[in-house]
User: What shape does this take?
Amino acid sequence: MTKQQALNLLYEKIQVGNALGLASSIIHWDAATLGVPEKSLADRGAAIGWIGGESFRRFMALDTIEAIETLEAVKGELNNYESAMIYVFGKAYRKAKAIPQEEFEAFQALTAEAQAVWETARKKCDYDMMQPYYEKVFDYQRRLCDWYGYENHPYDALLDDYERGANVEMLDSFFSALREKIVPLLKDIIAKDNQPKEIKGLFDISKQRELMPWLTDFAGYDRTRGKVGEVEHPFCTTITLDDVRITTMYHEDNLMSALFSTIHECGHAIYQQNMNAELVKHGLADGSSMGVHESQSRLYENMICRSKAFTEILLPKLQEKFDYFKDWDVDSLYRSVNIARPSLIRIEADELTYSLHVMVRYELEKKLVTGEIKVSDLPKLWADKYEEILGIRPDTLANGVLQDVHWSAGYVGYFPSYAVGTAYGSQLMNTIKKSIDINAAIKNADISPITKWLKENVHSKGQTLSPDELLKQSTGESFNPKYYVDYLEEKFRNLYLK
Amino acid sequence: MTKQQALNLLYEKIQVGNALGLASSIIHWDAATLGVPEKSLADRGAAIGWIGGESFRRFMALDTIEAIETLEAVKGELNNYESAMIYVFGKAYRKAKAIPQEEFEAFQALTAEAQAVWETARKKCDYDMMQPYYEKVFDYQRRLCDWYGYENHPYDALLDDYERGANVEMLDSFFSALREKIVPLLKDIIAKDNQPKEIKGLFDISKQRELMPWLTDFAGYDRTRGKVGEVEHPFCTTITLDDVRITTMYHEDNLMSALFSTIHECGHAIYQQNMNAELVKHGLADGSSMGVHESQSRLYENMICRSKAFTEILLPKLQEKFDYFKDWDVDSLYRSVNIARPSLIRIEADELTYSLHVMVRYELEKKLVTGEIKVSDLPKLWADKYEEILGIRPDTLANGVLQDVHWSAGYVGYFPSYAVGTAYGSQLMNTIKKSIDINAAIKNADISPITKWLKENVHSKGQTLSPDELLKQSTGESFNPKYYVDYLEEKFRNLYLK
Assistant: This one.
């Protein structure tokens, strides 16, 4: 196989993968926005299964690795896109190949069943139902560490699936910093007991909806190159780089959840919309990592839109639509969108405590993978960790160890990306603010200088850079949790302890 | 290859075809209901192209015909589904194989271009733009007749692609019957000049929308096994047999177009919803032919919903929503939804004249295929035919020879299905009325006995029967245009000439 033949073969496989991926994404969007007739689920599931399987089968064919090895042998002649393509696909191929075929298939079947069981177990608060599945999942994950191989800690092998280059050493230092600074800060806030006024009322959904174009335009989401849908659980999906769709959910009694979840999805969507076409051809049109993708959504949601500057422009918009806000001032609104307090459910957690929820999971997963703790002890260990870190114990298993779908879906090593990503965002913003007056841009309702910086340094790079390379190139240093800790400390000390 | 291996191979290919078909259908639905960002068209088109091509490539592989031949050799051992599968797929395979690969590909490229040119040519009323494309299309179609082969008339080879078993002999006799009875009937109606009052006004679209659940429920469309969308050009699409979707378009100034096009699509959808799962596995879950599918949509639209019985139950519903109808009576409404008069545009034609528009196209296509007439003479020949059959000449080319997309898309032999299908419907209804009181069922707003008959005799059969077999089994005789001509004569003589 010549270099050109190898490149063409990979390009062709990627093009087919893109076609099948487009189909999967539209099918998913369709189901989420319109629902699926119950009787149609099986036929639809079979089609989705074939489409996903075909993508995998084509990728795992022997000519893929032949092409990769051909190109690895001429590394010096490859451009940036080609090198990144070989790196990303070579690693994915070898990892997938490391898993015995029958083990892989058995695990797919196990997690399909486990997710259905989890739905019921959570509703019934029945850990006994779930325990045998979790045991099999973690048993498989332990073997997966060996199949993948690792240098220092077995958990490193799993982390890399979600967060390229992440490892226990890095995460221990990250969560230590949070434990040292944020856990005591939360305790001080609880002790001070000066919680702000909450936004409580019923907000007409059609009026909520009317706010969205203003909000997505503010964020810089290009509505002519995408769509906004309504679903139960919001997400962002890329059909093509010029058709990146976001979704929102509306609750009459929770105006802020629609606003902030929309901004969150805008962050993901802008990342995708700002990629360049060359990435598509090379199969690199996605975030550098799960964490880097999350860094963008949380940067827009928290650092930009939960700022005081943003509440200054948000308040008049709210007052235009809802009488409820007529007596509110900027300071009350700013405080009310930044309530910080211990809670039980990760996905409902506030900006300050979110990463502490992740810390609970990180510390448990790490020891589950080594066998230091047992699945049978999880409910108690979970509750103890929540008490230790957040100061409260779950009232029910549904609000405790059974709240997340991840383990039943076979995702072990995924949680840390949420927290690390948020921290990447702070590191990026720390650099951005050296050249751009962020508050002025927000108050001016024109954050395009920020987005332009992110496009140049993050979005346009796609998967050509690892998170570490990306941070080094754009901020001049490797990941440093200091910026995140400092940011949280400054913001929440000012809000609660002054 | 054993019999069982051959069956399994075909089942597997059909399952993959179904998966790819589901993806194509959802992608099409998504584009039609939501629109596609212009910049995304190319990437989306590439994906659609690959999906459709893959289906075709897998079907055309050598093992397909090996499996078909294996099963043809043991015909006597096959059940009904298996026999029909071998017949349908064997014929499709051999027809596709008969076309030289490079000719097929060149024609795909030609029609892709021709359709885009047609959009412009129609807008500009510029036949010179279109003529070279039509020449190439008909030139290809003439060669296609030879590749396919035929016994009597070359056009027969093309007709069979759309209407299994249709041929010039049958269509000549069908259109002769129309020419003999319906052309003079239309002349009499024009001469009598007692056109009914037209429905003219602006009808709030949200109120139009409110009527639809009542209407689709009346028709028997199962909304729990489908969806209703809004588009510019209504269609019905099958995602799975339990997710059959219809679409409607609304115009403030044209209430009736929304109502009747919805019923029309319901007719298609009910056909699909009433098929059985065994058909899916055998790749036979579609109409017996294009014409039989159209027979169902037009039967619901015209024979059921343009009946006097239906206007009796429609009028109170309209009066509930729109003041406009407060002084209308059943007779006026019945007459106003049955306006019959010559017109220029096929897709806007009324029940009486619709098949006359098709006759124009049939007579021209037949002679274009043999070379008796030339593409360059079409604008004049078209106008002459309209004058001869409908009594009017097109005012513009857009309202004349350039009105249909079919020829630019390469569909030659398609038009007759529209008319023949409508006539099948009359033949079916003629049998139904022997055992069911159709008017009573409609007035009672419960047409389930009619639908049950259609399900048993038409819908549940899918592609296991040819149109002719289907008519013989359900009505006791082959296609006979008499029922259609009699139905039109009786209905429109009563309306206009009494």
